[in-house]
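User: Here's a structure from my thesis project, written as structure tokens. My advisor, Dr. K., wants to see whether a designed sequence matches the one we expressed. Can you design one independently, without my sequence as a hint?
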């Protein structure tokens, strides 16, 4: 939690339309480079992927979530 709070204070939050599916895929590729894991993550591609948010903060949050899930 401390890292998240420190990260949030380090820069201005930018709320803009973001594609949540793309952010999740990017986080997955960072944590599980192709061919390095047999873990399966299912994303409901039919769900509306766009929302207002801070792309950098969301990417960091999902990356942390996936890293913590593996540990």
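Assistant: Designed independently from the structure alone:
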């Amino acid at each position: 939690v401390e890292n998240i709070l420190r990260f949030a204070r380090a820069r201005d939050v930018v709320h803009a339309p973001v594609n949540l599916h793309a952010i999740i895929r990017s986080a997955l590729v960072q944590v599980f480079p192709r061919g390095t894991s047999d873990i399966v993550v299912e994303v409901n591609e039919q769900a509306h992927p766009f929302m207002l948010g801070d792309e950098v903060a969301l990417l960091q949050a999902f990356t942390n979530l996936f890293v913590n899930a593996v540990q």
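When you compare it with your expressed construct, this may help: Strands lie at 16-19, 50-53.
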